[in-house]
Amino acid sequence: MTNDGLKILLVDDDKVMLFLHETFLKRSGVSRDAVLCYNGQEALDYLDAHQTVETTFLVLLDINMPVMNGWEFLSAVRDKPYLEQLLIVMVSSATEESEKARALMFAQVIDYQQKPLTIETCRRIIGSEKLRRFFGDFMPE
Question: Which residues carry this modification: 4-aspartylphosphate (predicted)?
Answer without folding.
Answer: 62
